[in-house]
């Protein structure tokens, strides 16, 4: 295919102010002629330079009239110019031998003088134009066409006259249009002559392969004019009407596909083909601009003035009367439309409605489009003449246009005039699996990044244009062939290899294509010195020279070649196909050669009208299989058929496996081929992947034949294999043709990835300083596009009740990362089609699609909810009537632990049900999210519940209102959580709100709320003040209490289960959750620790904290802390200041309720390893704490000196193991922060456990000091003492590493015993005194925590009672300072 690229080049001919009328090229498209009313100019295509400018004098203009149109002679030796007075002027073109070759070329004022050597190297000829004669044609010339050595002239009198190039009229072959019979087919069905004798031909085009003319009449009708004789005798002429065409204005013929295109006044185009049976014209495709993208295109564009096919007949360009153009493929696929470009930049050629293309022409190989652009808005006010400019637009085309050996590759290869564009680096067929692992496959399929390979200038100078290019199967080597010779490039070494001998390069012309086989280049060539056709093999391992090549002589010209495994398929001009077997053989030298053996020759002359019409040839293992023919297992993947694309018709020649042929077969004689079968029509491209080692579940795609059919999309000839145990019926087909609609033009297919690759030209507007031309034109950039095809194939199979094959096909692609998206696309497209259909669907496909998706339970719920979220709400009833009630689907998600999917269903319930129903389901989902540690989802659900207005809880559903809330609160619920699970290595984040607010702030807020609600200054009726405002406040408070009860209940569950890590993540991810305040209230209930051993083991598991190693020596390390041994140790009270980017650490709050005092922690500081508990109010407690810590510090210092004096290698090894077994740094930071939190909250049991876990003796001492405060109950001290004793017993048998820690804290156990004794004495005295007075015994703290979960459903009064003791507790806890 063809794609424009870059900015157009603007050329300035001599006498640029002239009104240029026409541009046309010669047969080789090397020279281009420009015609104006007075001038005739000839340009060279590469480089684009003007060679000559011929100007008619005033006498000639007066006698013959001004120029109107011209035509080239086939051998480029003459041109014929038609004038306004009915004359035809003949001019002879010859080489100018008298002047220097660069004389005319260097007369341009805008171009610098070039040296003679450079001009000679570019082979720009010097031409001279001289008058040769003239002839007058009565009735004026309306159009002219060249037939071999004669001119066919259509006049205004309705005559078709034959004129020789010497000016003599051949009156014997003059045809009167009124005498020609017109019919609907060539069988003369209803033949009749024209009723209007004044009708004449306005446009005419001739094609030798069609053996006829395309004509457009002055009344708007069009026809195909042909003759039964070769010389077009007047008595044997007949015409066939183009059906359904009454407003034709232009025409264009395609010689490669035998198509006839007509442009209409409504801006559309119709392409016809010739029926081989009846000779009638049939509509092949319509060239229509899509109304969904351009609803007013018919009024904006105007009539289709001009139609031009590319030189190879693959693309048609159509221009409109009011400006702009469109590109269509041969069978009607829209490639480009200039209406899509940016209109704001006033692009002359593409967007401006007042700009029109007067004439255009394709240059050599279609790399350039020469355009005469007429802009009426840029009229020169002084001279009054239109400012017409000549532009050249560059194109790149697919390598498969002319080379069928590149269609089965997984890469896109585009070739331009001087470079190649390759898309192999991102997603070659061998490395796409690795990209899937990183989730980058889909993004790699699109973009504007290409591997650009500039072709060496040394090769292009003599061999422009590039005719063929090919890439190997690995995408690592590329070969090109120009006018002569060839060259190849290796991506690994980034080097080109050219012929070292220029004579060898100029002796060979690649005429039939080239392809790669292993490391060899196979080229169909013509040897100029020996005048013969050859097949040459060049290896990439050696230098490019005929010495290292293998030559195979063939008797006829080669047209096409392709490879299949070790077979080379060659199409010859004599309508024969040769099959050659290739064998790699190691030569005596260091390089390998190819040995070829001709094994078969297949004649196709009886089935193909002309070998030149064959655009593609390939050998495949496919067959139109029937039950009666069984292929042997050893020949299952052998060459079974030959595929030919003959003018868009796909013919299959299969091997004859009848009984007679099998009996006569020998090993040396292969089976012959039977008569062809037409597989499909309107075929542009073909792809196949014949994998011999493919698994059974991938055979569907690998053994399928993919056909690109232009506007009809892609057709897949899919196999339907049956299992060995099942008995297939004889009437069941083994293959089926499935149509697929695509939104791009396919250039390559990645079969294993399930992706179709394509390319588009995207217009980009750039603003350049001082360059008005580039500012007014868009830059066309090549962009890769892709589309998933799997859901289209599945849909077609389900539509045909082939669900078993659809399941097998889907199972083979289930491992793809975007397979859920495939199911979603399948459901969405079927839903949109059936739900929006005006008429009822007799056989709905949606139930079958839903049943198909249910076969994948892991994707079932996600597919449905994602499809619903991307579909209009009006279509939801149609969807859920088939898939089921969304409530049931929500419950299934909860049972299957698919909470993220359940959150999406919650948004659907929000739009379909009452707010009360969505609140109930949100509560269930919140409980499940909390239990599954989905913290981000839980946070979003809490916001969702708070956003529900209590006054609308029972109100009926309002779709408009609910959709609004969906947009506000549903966005965070839809996507997956970005916070990884803590069990998978993710860390938790603590917000600054994790700290409890001061009681003073709480009291101030409560007072403000009470003052606001009961303000005496606001004069409101008593009834309204008592009912309206307080009722609203009570509803809000009740909702908040309801949410707090759920959160507090789960927090109690976590803490009572010793899941301190989960509790920290829970508090960090919930907005404004006061963890410290909650811990203060729960320190006598859920925060109590009855089993120290279980709690420590749980902390080791959750924080990935290793157990301590047992000591290797007898040295007493009981009072030595690991933190004091590490030179870079951090004090227990200090929090980490920096963290890595990927780690999420618990960060200490900016403000602490308990003041923090720091000491210098440098290695030489006396406070480097000491943490002191300083009093804030009580001096007595302060002295006691300081004394204890000082004694411990001195004892540690003495033991450190003893240890370092007697340290040996074993002890150093033990210490290094202890330091290495300390655990991850982030876990240590988290544990120390939690230690600070629980100490501030007064949860001394947890503080003691964390201190022991960190093996921080100083933190243990600090915790025991806090236990000595008066507000610490006896039960807390008792549990601390019992826990330490059980830990010591447990370490004896289960964890010897904790022995040293237990030994170091023996004094603290004794202190706890002393605290218990001191606390029991006052209780005994009080009990004796209370018994004498007979007062009721107070409620012990243990009675308040017997049933902690019963307090979850308490009212506000109970909450206020719970918060009353908190004030005293916090006031007492402020007596100590942690630093």
Automatic annotation (TrEMBL):
Which segments show compositional bias classed as Low complexity?
1326-1337
Report the subcellular localization: Membrane
- Protein name, as recorded: Protein RIC1 homolog
Q: Using the UniProt record, give the first listed, main subcellular location.
A: membrane
Keyword Membrane present in the record's keywords: the answer is yes
Source species: Dimorphilus gyrociliatus
Q: Which GO terms describe its biological process?
A: intracellular protein transport; retrograde transport, endosome to Golgi
InterPro entries this protein is in?
Answer: Ric1, RIC1_C, WD40_repeat_dom_sf
Ranges of residues in domain RIC1 C-terminal alpha solenoid region? 791-956
Which segments carry the region annotation Disordered? Answer: 1321-1379
Where along the chain is composition biased (Acidic residues)? 1355-1370
């Amino acid at each position: 295919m063809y794609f424009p690229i870059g900015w157009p080049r603007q050329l300035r001919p001599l006498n640029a102010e002239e009104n240029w009328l026409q541009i046309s090229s010669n047969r080789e498209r090397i020279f281009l002629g420009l015609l104006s009313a007075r001038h005739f100019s000839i340009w060279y295509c590469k480089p684009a330079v003007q060679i000559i400018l011929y100007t008619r004098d005033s006498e000639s203009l007066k006698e013959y009239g001004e120029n109107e149109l011209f035509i080239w002679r086939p051998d480029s030796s003459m041109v014929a110019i038609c004038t306004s007075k009915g004359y035809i002027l003949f001019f002879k073109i010859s080489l100018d031998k008298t002047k220097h070759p660069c004389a005319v070329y260097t007369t341009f004022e805008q171009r610098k003088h070039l040296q003679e050597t450079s001009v000679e190297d570019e082979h720009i000829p010097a031409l001279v134009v001289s008058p040769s004669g003239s002839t007058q044609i009565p009735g004026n010339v309306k159009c002219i066409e060249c037939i071999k050595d004669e001119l066919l002239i259509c006049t205004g009198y309705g005559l078709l006259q034959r004129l020789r190039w010497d000016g003599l009229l051949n009156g014997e072959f003059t045809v009167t249009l009124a005498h020609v019979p017109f019919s609907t087919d060539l069988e003369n069905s209803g033949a009749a002559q024209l009723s209007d004798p004044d009708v004449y031909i306005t446009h005419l085009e001739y094609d030798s392969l069609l053996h006829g003319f395309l004509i457009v009449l002055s009344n708007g009708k069009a026809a195909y004019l042909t003759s039964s004789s070769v010389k077009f005798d007047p008595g044997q002429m007949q015409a066939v009407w183009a059906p359904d065409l009454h407003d034709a204005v232009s025409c264009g013929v395609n010689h490669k596909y035998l198509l006839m295109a007509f442009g209409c006044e409504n801006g559309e185009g119709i392409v016809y083909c010739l029926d081989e049976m009846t000779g009638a014209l049939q509509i092949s495709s319509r060239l229509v601009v899509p109304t969904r993208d351009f609803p007013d295109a018919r009024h904006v564009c105007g009539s289709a003035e001009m139609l031009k096919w590319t030189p190879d007949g693959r693309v048609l360009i159509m221009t409109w009367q009011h400006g702009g153009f469109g590109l269509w493929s041969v069978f009607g696929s829209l490639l480009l439309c200039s209406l899509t470009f940016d209109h704001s930049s006033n692009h002359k050629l593409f967007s401006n409605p007042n700009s029109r293309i007067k004439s255009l022409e394709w240059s050599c190989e279609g790399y350039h489009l020469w355009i005469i652009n007429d802009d009426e808005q840029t009229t020169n006010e002084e001279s009054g003449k239109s400012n017409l400019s000549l532009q050249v637009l560059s194109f790149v085309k697919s390598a498969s246009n002319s080379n069928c050996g590149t269609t089965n590759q997984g890469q896109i290869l585009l070739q331009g005039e001087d470079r190649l564009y390759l898309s192999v680096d991102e997603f070659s067929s061998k490395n796409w699996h690795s990209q899937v692992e990183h989730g980058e496959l889909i993004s790699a399929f699109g973009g504007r990044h290409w591997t650009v390979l500039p072709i060496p200038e040394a090769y292009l100078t003599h061999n422009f244009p590039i005719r063929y290019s090919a890439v190997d199967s690995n995408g690592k080597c590329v070969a090109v062939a120009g006018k002569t010779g060839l060259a190849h490039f290796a991506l690994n070494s980034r080097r080109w290899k050219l012929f070292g001998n220029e004579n060898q390069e100029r002796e060979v012309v690649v005429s039939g294509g080239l392809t790669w086989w292993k490391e060899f280049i196979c080229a169909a060539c013509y040897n100029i010195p020996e005048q013969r056709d050859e097949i040459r093999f060049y290896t990439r391992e050696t230098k490019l020279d005929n010495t290292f090549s293998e030559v195979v002589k063939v008797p006829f010209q080669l047209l096409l070649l392709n490879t299949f495994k070790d077979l080379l398929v060659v199409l010859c001009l004599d309508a024969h196909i040769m099959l050659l077997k290739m064998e790699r053989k190691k030569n005596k030298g260091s390089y390998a050669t190819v040995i070829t053996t001709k094994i078969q020759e297949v004649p196709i002359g009886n089935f193909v009208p002309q070998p030149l019409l064959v655009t593609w040839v390939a050998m495949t293992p496919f067959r139109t299989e029937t039950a009666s023919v069984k292929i042997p297992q050893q020949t299952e993947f052998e060459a079974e058929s030959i595929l030919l694309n003959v003018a868009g018709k796909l013919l299959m020649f299969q091997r004859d496996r009848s009984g007679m042929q099998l009996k006569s077969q020998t090993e040396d004689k292969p089976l012959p081929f039977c008569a062809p079968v037409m597989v499909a029509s309107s075929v542009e491209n073909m792809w196949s992947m014949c994998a011999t080692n493919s698994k059974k579940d991938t055979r569907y795609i690998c053994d399928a034949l993919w056909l690109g059919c232009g506007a009809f999309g892609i057709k897949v000839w899919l196999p339907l294999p049956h299992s060995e145990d099942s008995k297939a019926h004889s009437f069941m087909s083994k293959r089926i043709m499935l149509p697929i609609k695509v939104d791009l033009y396919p250039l390559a297919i990645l079969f294993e990835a399930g992706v179709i690759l394509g390319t588009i030209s995207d217009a980009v507007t750039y603003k350049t300083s001082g360059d008005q031309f580039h500012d007014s034109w868009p830059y066309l950039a090549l962009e890769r596009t892709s589309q998933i095809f799997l859901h289209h194939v599945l849909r077609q199979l389900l539509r045909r009740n082939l669900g078993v094959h659809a399941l097998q096909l889907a199972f083979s692609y289930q491992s793809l990362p975007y397979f859920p998206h495939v199911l979603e696309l399948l459901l969405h497209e079927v839903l949109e089609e059936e739900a929006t259909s005006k008429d009822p669907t007799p056989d709905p496909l949606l139930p079958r699609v839903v049943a198909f998706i249910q076969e994948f339970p892991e994707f079932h719920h996600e597919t449905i909810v994602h499809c619903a979220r991307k579909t209009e709400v009006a279509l939801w009833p149609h969807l859920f009537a088939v898939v089921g009630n969304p409530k049931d689907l929500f419950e299934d998600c909860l049972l299957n632990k698919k909470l993220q999917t359940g959150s999406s269903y919650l948004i659907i319930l929000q739009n379909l049900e009452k707010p009360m129903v969505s609140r109930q389901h949100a509560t269930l989902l919140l409980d499940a999210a909390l239990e599954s540690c989905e913290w981000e989802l839980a946070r979003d659900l809490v916001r969702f519940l708070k956003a529900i207005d209590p006054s609308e809880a029972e109100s009926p559903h309002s779709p408009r209102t609910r959709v609004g809330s969906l947009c506000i609160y549903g966005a965070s619920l839809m996507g997956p959580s970005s916070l990884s699970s803590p069990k998978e290595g993710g860390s938790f984040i603590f917000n600054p709100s994790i700290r409890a607010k001061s009681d003073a702030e709480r009291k101030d807020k409560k007072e403000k709320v009470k003052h606001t609600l009961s303000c005496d200054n606001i004069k409101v009726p008593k009834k309204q003040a008592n009912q309206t405002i307080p009722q609203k406040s009570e509803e809000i408070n009740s909702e908040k209490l309801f949410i707090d009860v759920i959160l507090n209940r789960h927090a109690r569950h976590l803490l009572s289960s010793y899941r301190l890590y989960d509790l920290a993540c829970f508090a960090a991810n919930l907005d404004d959750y006061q963890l410290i305040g909650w811990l203060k209230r729960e320190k006598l209930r859920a925060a109590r620790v009855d089993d120290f051993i279980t709690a420590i083991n749980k902390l080791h598991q959750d924080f990935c904290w290793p157990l301590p190693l047992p000591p290797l020596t007898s040295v007493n390390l009981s009072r030595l802390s690991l933190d004091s041994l590490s030179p870079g140790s951090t004090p227990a009270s200090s929090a980490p200041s920096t963290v890595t980017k990927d780690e999420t650490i618990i960060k200490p709050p900016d403000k602490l309720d308990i003041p923090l005092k720091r000491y210098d922690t440098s290695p030489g500081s006396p406070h480097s390893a000491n943490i002191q508990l300083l009093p804030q109010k009580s001096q007595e407690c302060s002295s006691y704490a300081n004394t204890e810590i000082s004694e411990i510090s001195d004892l540690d210092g003495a033991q450190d000196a003893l240890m370092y004096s007697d340290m040996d290698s074993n002890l150093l090894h033990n210490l290094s193991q202890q330091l290495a077994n300390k655990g991850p740094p982030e876990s240590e930071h988290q544990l120390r922060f939690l230690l600070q939190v629980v100490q501030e909250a007064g949860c001394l049991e947890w503080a003691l456990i964390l201190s022991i876990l960190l093996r921080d003796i100083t933190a243990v001492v600090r915790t025991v000091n806090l236990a000595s405060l008066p507000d610490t109950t006896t039960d807390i001290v008792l549990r601390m003492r019992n826990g330490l004793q059980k830990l010591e017993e447990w370490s004896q048998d289960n964890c010897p590493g904790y022995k040293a820690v237990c030994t170091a804290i023996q004094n603290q156990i004794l202190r706890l015993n002393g605290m218990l004794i001191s606390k029991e004495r006052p209780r005994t005295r009080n009990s004796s005194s209370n018994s004498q007075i007979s007062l009721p015994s107070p409620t012990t703290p243990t009675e308040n925590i017997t049933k902690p979960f019963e307090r979850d459903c308490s009212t506000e009064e109970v909450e206020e009672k719970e918060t009353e003791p908190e004030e005293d507790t916090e006031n007492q806890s402020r007596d100590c300072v942690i630093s």
